[in-house]
Amino acid sequence: MNSPRNTIDDSGTGCLIEYTMNSSQPATEAVVDAVATVSDTSAEELSPLYEAVETDALDQLVAPRIHETSRTDVTVEFTYNEKLVSVNGQTIKVYPLEA
Length: 99
Hints:
This protein has about 100 residues and is α+β, with helices and mostly antiparallel strands. It has helices at about 25-40, 55-60, and strands at about 5, 15-20, 75-80, 85-90, 90-95. Strands 1-2-5-4-3 form a five-stranded antiparallel beta sheet, covered by helices on one side.
């Protein structure tokens, strides 16, 4: 199994991490992994993702199409564990919440 690419972004965009999912990883699992990474905690210590977003809908919206191409035409944004999460195709970006 390929491991996801995690990049801490310091390009001035405010993005804390850009997380690229592998093709077999559901978006919901990748979101939890990305937020846990930037929060410096384990996934088990985070609040349940279903409290922030409809998890089945998220997985279906960004799942690869029939020919395994990423869904870059759909972006889902929501707040989770005091972070702004943006999911687009196979990429998850996590931002700090603005005060």
